[in-house]
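Field: COMPLEX_INPUT
Field: COMPONENT_COUNT = two
Field: RESIDUE_TOTAL = 680
Field: MODE = joint
Values follow.
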Amino acid sequence: MRIKSLLIANRGEIAIRICRTAKMMGIKTYGIKTSKEPKAYYLDFVDEIIDFCESMDEVPEFLDVERIVTIAKKSNIEAIHPGYGFLAESPYFAQRCEEEGVIFIGPSPEAIYKMGNKTIAKRIANRYQVPLLRGSYGNLKSAGEARHIANKIGYPVIFKAAAGGGGRGMRIVEKVSQIEKMFKVASAEAEEAFNDPSVFLEKYVRNPKHIEFQILGDKNGNYVHLGERECSIQRKHQKLIEESPSPVLDKKLRKKMGEDAIKIAEATNYYNAGTVEFLLDDDKKYYFMEMNTRIQVEHSVTEVVTGIDLIEMQIRIAQGEKLPFKQEDIKLTGWAIECRINAEDVQAGFNPYLGIIDKIQYPRSKNIRIDTGITDLSVVTPYFDSMVSKLIVYGETREKAINNCLNALDKFWIKGIKTTIPFCKAVLHHRKFRNGDFNTSFIEKEMKKLHYEGDQNEMLAAYLATFDFAAGLETDRSTYIDFEQGKNISPWVLNKRLRSL
Amino acid sequence: MILSRKKSKDQDSEYIAVTSQDKKYTIKNPFSEELMINHKKIDIKIFDDENGFTYILFKRKKYLAEIVEKTQNKYTVLINGVSYTFSIESPISYKRKKYLEKNKSKSHTELVAAPMPGKIVDLLIEVGDKVKEGESLVILEAMKMQNEIGSPASGTVSKIFIKVGDIVNKEDVLVEIQR
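Field: COMPLEX_OUTPUT
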């Protein structure tokens, strides 16, 4: 069958990204409007808007399973794409779609459930001889049990939320005296974030690299992997810069890890797009971490180096189509880097920076792809994730990609909010990053300064502030513009004065 | 028509921009070709472009510029997305400021403010507790993350202004520490 209508149960850049492919495939798109951002940019891209502004209950709009499924049925929408976050990895949501005869663009509820529960996922990996870290292999019942296991496998250890993702519910424990407190903190955070306080424990690998494999599977049991993504540039387990391929994998290791990624998928009869995450240690030993059963934020770098539209593949697979390629057809060409542009104040510990985007101007070139969720006058609200835009840059080599990326960041102009752009520049300028010598502790250990600034920035800032201050004094003194003097005045001051009159 | 202000203008046209780290930039003749920064002649131009951005042209490079906050003589300015804060002084007000600072006794009270809006989910201290610099005081949940708020200084907790479950705004004072 062919899907003709699609409800996008998401917002921001990913909603727009899904629209783009849906349009290309001739699918009618529906978007959800919420009272939290009724003028959001993504609503400009959908064919029909479904109004969820009227609040129905306590559940946030994009998490309201029944409301979303009901409206899809009522409006005769054939399929739902959940994007990432929100309900993307809710087996219950996938189940409810299935029950109501709405196509869920994603894997089966069973696969989501098994992979979403990290302890089950680890058991599966273990059964298929995919390398794993030592640990509790299951949810912990008490702090006492945690202490017992930690003593056996040795510190440091890490607590992780069984239902987790995105760094929530994770806590590293260095010594036995912290274990009870951290068990409580991790459980509380897991409960708050995922409604499930279950945590498990495993050996903590210091300074690993985070390498993940994109896989695709169809409903006929065909699988391919699309190579890896290097996602080690993370802060508090939140990815900030990703690239594909990884500077440390060779063909042999890529093949081996890719095959293991496929094994995990096969074990759950997985279909649709998925990501298998591994840790890679200094000895290039790798360990299965988890599988994400959704499209990911960083899917775009894989698309750039493989030339494959992953959203299109998701929709085709959901329609029951077979994968149009085999493993040997997949080639990685060149290098792609993604910078996440988050509305955050890097100088204030990456705190969310809320506000109105007065103006935004993107760099343009054939090597640049922008996936954005914002436009002029968009509002950054506290209700949603701080990521507002993604810059994806291509280069024939890693070095070229990095340089192209730095050029692009210089031309990525936003007025009204602070973003992670100065941080991304600092990473891309860093010698060790450029040499490919980095891991997940890069930000903490290697970066003395988290934002990049030119030598003269402060002086320029001092001049701008003084200029404005002095211009203000001038305006106070003269109640009108002296045209004689005006000739010699910078147009900038003149503009300011005209505005102030 | 402006009175013969040439003379007085020349006297007025020196400013000192002082950073939060007390670094100073002496800026002379900000509007003219005779602009001098730290006693050196320099060529810097400020523009508003047709798209609504302000940028600075310096040595043929464009720097995105924005004034994000100003109250009286206090400025926060962004250059390429990095913020800088200054107070702008005249040579006379600068001297007075320095004099006052020298005579001001150093405060022993540190206030811990919320770095972002959120909800207080845990209090790790009580009044009277001794804390070290950087030690976690409060857990503030914002954007679904649990953020540990550390002490700005070593000292004793003298006041707690919040309780678990409170919703706080950015800059709300949470805890007072006596050094």
